[in-house]
Amino acid sequence: MKNHNLFLTPNYRYRLPESNLKKLILSLIVLLSFVHVAAQNNINISGTVVDDQGEAVIGASVVAQKSKNGTITDVEGNFKLSVRSNDVLTISFIGYITQTVPVSGKNNIVVTLKENSMLLDEVVVTGFGLAQKRASVTGAISSVGAQELAHAKSVTATGALVGKLPGVNFRQDNGRPGAAPNIQIRNMGTPLIIIDGVQKDSGNLNNLDFNDIESVSVLKDASAAIYGMQAANGVVVITTKRGQKNQKLKVNVNGYYGWQLPSNYPKPASAEDYLAAIIQTETINGTPRTVTKEEYQKWVDKVDEDHTSFDWYKYIWVSAPQSYVNANVSGGTEKVRYYLSLGHIDQEGNIRGFKGFNRTNMQSNIDIDITNRFKVGVAINGRIETTDNPGLPGDDYNLPIYGAYNNLPTKKPYANNNPKYPAISAPWAQDSFGWMNYEHAGSYKDQWKVIQINGTAEYEILKGLKARGLFSYWLANRRQSNREYSYKFYEYDKESDVYNVVETGTARYTERSMEMKEELTSNIQLSYENTFALHHVNAVVGFEAKKGTYPRMYALGNPPANGIPYIDKTSLSNFTDGIGNPQTRMGYIGRLNYDYANKYIIELSGRYDGSYRYKRGKRWGFFPSASIGYRVTEEKFWQDVDFLKDNITNLKIRASYGVLGEELGTALSHIVGYNYNSGGAVIDGGLVTGSTVTGLATDNITWGKSKILNIGIDLGFLDNRLNASFDYFNRDQTGLLASRYDVQIPEEVGFSLPQENLNSNYARGFDASVNWRDRIGDVNYTVGGNVTYSRWYVGDRYKPRFSSEWQKFRYQAGNIKGRYTDVEFSLVSDGQFQSWEEIANHPVDQDHQGNITLKPGDAKYKDMNGDGLINDADWRPIGYRKGGTPWVNFAFNLALDWKGIDFRADFVGATAYTYVQQGFLRYFDPNKNLSQYLWDNSTRLVDIWDADSGFNIGKYPLALRTRNNSDCTHWPSDFWYTNMTYLKMRNVEIGYTLPQKWTSKIGISRCRFYVSGQNLFALKNIDIDIDPEITAENGMAYPNMKVVNFGFSVDF
Predict the structure, then answer these.
(1) Domain extent for 277
(2) Helix 293-301 × helix 271-285 angle, to 10°
(3) Within a domain: residue 345?
(4) What pLDDT score was predicted for residue 393?
(5) Do the beta carbons of residue 269 and residue 929 sit within 8 Å?
(6) Which pLDDT tens digit goes with each residue over 60-116?
(7) Fewer CB atoms inside 10 A, N or C side of the chain?
(8) Which pTM does this prediction carry?
(9) Vertex 379 angle, CA 374 and 380, to 5°
(10) CATH number for 52
(11) 933 within domain boundaries
(12) SUPFAM superfamilies under this entry (predicted)?
């Protein structure tokens, strides 16, 4: 019998049974195995990341999927990392295909990354929870990422996009501080702006900090239908930056300092040329002399300071600094991601004495995974922007700009050059704006304070099935304060050393306005995404609602003295207070995306929208869209042919069609409105204030509709080093507003018939892009370009009528279906008259007075109808639209990188639009100066003092003070119209990134310095010194600035 009581028998030696011994040994083996596994969890590995040519890839991200450790490669492409022995590494770098490599117990790993020219725009964010790979996109969508935007040093985010998006047109018609380009998609009108899922206006896009933008996607076709109302002109989808999972803390500080100069601006004539033009006028007209030869010669010889021409251009336009700085931090753990940013920009004005514009931006994006299924996010962004200038009516920059040619070159801004005493420098005192400053004119200040809070929550109900909600609150407060001082003009008496008042300026004004914009947006979605074998499905249904209120208060007063900051009852002259037209919109959305083997792709979407604008029964509309795509290169027959597989690596055919809604008409036009406190009557001897009806109500206004067809093709050649895309589009716009003319109502009603949805227009066009990316030795380079053509045509018109065939041809061109819209008509020129003899023998009566007003150098017009008389019956179509976006826009881009040196250049251009010379650039105003360009290129007397001395025929007619726009030589004609073409260098930048082996020693992972320039030159087919983007026909717009910046970017 075996005794198992060890403690009762001290001398007993216990022997473990054999079976138990086996168990113990097995347990020890298992324990040792655990110890071995534990040791495996902490192995140290090293490795090298190279490209397909064996060159080191610097700064590549290396992340272990299981241990969550990560690092980046050094200047040799090397890395060291502590990982588990069975871990998997993810290696990624911009411009290369991401690779996953199992560790498999190896201590040294070499990874070769392959370039991917499609990677930069591989993911396209189209909104409502969908981010698609470029390969699966079936709509016409252009996109740009943060890396490209970082090289565009623009004051506004819109400016950073110029030239980078095919099918998106920009035109910056003025360069005042804080100004942004106008943006249109395919010349269709103002697009809808979506920022982080919330509808905003273009002002919010303009004033984003471009450093905070992660990506921009532009929906150009029917794919915009899911955004409903206001999306018919296309949609710009902005996504701001966010932190990433398991991202180490990254701190970035970047900024620049630069100088601005006017790029192109017509210069006023010098004093001697201004006086010569006056003398020539008096010589030809035989009027008494106001300038003697002796006086004129003093100006020519500049005998003293009083006879030295004053350059108003140099005085008014000055160089001005601008500066920008941004600091941001980003990072993340397994559960929390964050991105925080603070930026400030200061852009001083280029008009003397103008402080200009400044803006401070804040962005905070935080995402938290409460559980593996439940995620929340909070995004807060805000800005404070301020415009600060001298006191001018309505902050009118044009007043001092006009001073450049209103003010005479024989005058100076101050009496005796003493800045305390403004002088009259123009024929009319109120035009003497060249001296504007805060001391004399007062001050104008306009400030916006804006904050937006977005809250999101997402819950995964089942695998692939998610519920998501977004709530956004946006508040903008605007305060304007304008104090316009009364001022006096002086003359200096040298003998008595006294400044005498000769005239008093405008009356004092104090303007105050306060405006508040408040918007609430809510969005609830249910989405499902899954893959079944070769079938991939993504679907979403949802609801969106938006409500906004926009109250405003305005007060105008006439204070008794300058400097009084308040408006009291005694000085109040105008006061308005309004609730600001509350607006409410809502819609139901649905979308289905399906693809088979990433080869056959289809997308269906629709939106059922309702608007507060219309009466019951007409408020709601359904707007569907559909698109298909076929990736031919994924077919087996394509892959089986080596030539096709190796040379054409991407071929996708796309098509889309949809109906999009447009909000037309004024709100609540079906209800009779009243203007209160308008009019009145005397009743029982007393004045009773009354109210008036605003107009007739109508039930016949509802949604306009745009039917949009797009057919496109995407191509990739030579392993996608060469990429091309082409899209053709049609837009049929119906339900445009017009009034019936054939329904008569009594005149006693006092109103015309209201508008209804009666007319239509249509547009046709295309956009295309080509990009080549490659590497030669150590040089990486990219060359690309894009072009957009879009033109509008007249569609159906309500019962078009014409009084004659001529009326049908000329004046009613807008009523002929199939005609181009925006066509310029004018007389057709036929050179210039070379002599008095030619004028006398001219068989056509051009001036309606037997040609007695004509002079050598004047424009000669063609008698198109042969009746011997020049009039509007001789007008013909001679040009494209003026003042708007050109019909053809194009851009070219170049990028180079070589051993830490990088170079970027963006060129933009346009053609097929008309510029018209007017005012300052067309004739010599009797009460102002003339442009130096006009004088230098005009016809002149050989001797300005002798009418019989003959003429030197110039490019333009005689510049005479007695001629104006009604003179026949200045009639509208192609003599004064130019069909423009230009190419402008929009951005250029050269930078250098310091070697990481230098910077890593002081805790800096990347340090880059650069020099950049904007608007440095423009090639154009007109020799007038104007910026080709401006629309002001007299050239007197605030010009776009030439800018040179010196900047840096440092990552810690």
Answers:
(1) 271-308+925-964
(2) 160
(3) yes
(4) 64
(5) yes
(6) 888 888 877 888 887 678 888 888 888 889 898 866 778 889 988 788 899 988 766
(7) N
(8) 0.86
(9) 150
(10) 2.60.40.10
(11) yes
(12) Carboxypeptidase regulatory domain-like (SSF49464), Porins (SSF56935)
* Whether 281 and 355 share a structural domain: no
Q: Are residues 542 and 478 in the same domain?
A: yes
Greater model confidence, 993 or 69: 993
How many other CB atoms are there within 10 angstroms of residue 360's CB atom?
A: 15
pLDDT, one tens digit per residue, over 608-643 is 999 988 888 889 999 999 999 999 999 999 999 999
Cα–Cα distance between 70 and 293 in angstroms, integer?
Answer: 85
Whether the predicted pLDDT of 953 surpasses 60: yes
pLDDT of residue 34: 44
Best CA proximity match to 341, nearest among 255, 450, 252: 252
Q: Rounded to an integer, what distance in angstroms lies between the CA atom of residue 461 and that of residue 938?
A: 78
CA distance 332 to 327: 17
Asked whether the predicted pLDDT for residue 8 surpasses 50, the reply is no
Residue for token digits 């600060």?
388
> Is position 413 within any domain?
yes
- Domain total in the chain: 3
φ/ψ (deg, to 5) at 51 = -95, -175
The CA distances from residue 36 to 40, 43, 470, in Å, are: 6, 11, 49
**Beta bridge pairs of residue 1049:** 254, 1008
Residue 16 has pLDDT above 50, yes or no: no
**415/546 same-domain check:** yes
Contact 480, 516 (CB under 8 A): no
Take residue 890 and report the two structure tokens written for it: 């194009």
Both 474 and 380 in one domain: the answer is yes
User: Count of H helices and E strands in the chain?
Assistant: 15, 53
d(CA 156, CA 477): 20
The span from the CA of 820 to the CA of 809, in Å, is: 12
Domain membership of residue 515 (yes or no) is yes
The predicted pLDDT at position 36 comes to 44
pLDDT of 115 reads 67
> Does residue 301 sit in the same domain as residue 342?
no
Classified as helix, coil or strand, 281 is helix
